[in-house]
């Protein structure tokens, strides 16, 4: 019970790095001596101190003889920073309690073994499920090469995402649209389609001011924040340099089957992928994102792309904002899955969270395995 209490605190600290640590995982650390927290910290930004180092710096000489609670196995290798295992050993800690092993097969278990061989008592698996959940993208990328894929939709009560003429601004309230900013901010990339860009001309930018206003970030931490890469599925080369999404800070990727002759800004990259049955291979596209160290990816697109991803079992999580509105039979429904004729073949999802956001409801679901 005591271990869970302090690990819960470490998990809460870990979440503070949710907007700025990618591609590193979010990690929190709490140092306890004689029943008192003497130091705590979290990984704040890639390239800077890991959670354990920040906690050790906060504890000073009180770390000697302490118990250290850390949400993820301490690193055992030199990367952008020195190994945390060495720092913990040098600090003279007595015990290290770990939420989960590092999922990287080249590292997993090595840190625990080094600590044990140094005479430190080691426990792991405390609140493992929670530890993995806050780093679901990191764990998935390390095990499969693919990022964790979220699909976000805004729909009416009768499951429509736009009027027949394409009008969709705004189905949901300002509260829901502000809430979406947290999902954008936590993802390394945002995928959309040329159809969505041509219809809505979005920017797909994170509105940091909205997050700051709602106390999700502090003014001092804004320097560590970045805009996710915008990835546009544009097989027919329909996007031009004049679209709003192109003329925004940060990088934009155009996923295509051929180059065009347009002059593009330096932040725009055309990526050519092979076509099969007149479609871009979606798994190959996601593997490309994984190879570029993207842990979490958000999709903001329409019914056709939603159906394509569902059909290939590529969606890990659904975020659906439901507004108390009825759009009617002639409107565009949220998903198109060609060839689905039997109820037994219908994809099934499980609710993991239901929350009221302003006048709307946010539904969070995962595929039923």
Descriptive report:
The chain has 369 residues and is an alpha/beta fold. It folds into 2 domains: 1-134, 3-Layer(aba) Sandwich (Cytidine Deaminase, domain 2), CATH 3.40.140; 145-367, Dihydrofolate Reductase, subunit A (3-Layer(aba) Sandwich). The chain has 11 helices and 18 strands. A 9-stranded mixed beta sheet has the order 11-10-9-8-14-6-15-18-17. The protein is elongated. The chain starts with a helix and ends with a strand. The model has no long low-confidence stretch (mean pLDDT 90).
Helix and strand topology:
Layout: H1 2-14, E1 28-33, E2 36-42, H2 51-59, E3 67-72, H3 84-91, E4 95-100, H4 110-117, E5 121-124, H5 128-133, H6 136-144, E6 148-155, E7 160-162, H7 174-186, E8 189-193, H8 194-200, H9 208-213, E9 229-233, E10 252-256, E11 268-272, E12 275-276, E13 279-280, H10 282-291, E14 296-299, H11 303-311, E15 317-322, E16 332-333, E17 349-357, E18 360-367
Parallel strand pairs: 3-4, 4-5, 6-14, 6-15, 8-9, 8-14, 9-10, 10-11
Antiparallel strand pairs: 1-2, 1-3, 7-16, 12-13, 15-18, 17-18
Helix pairs in contact: 3-4
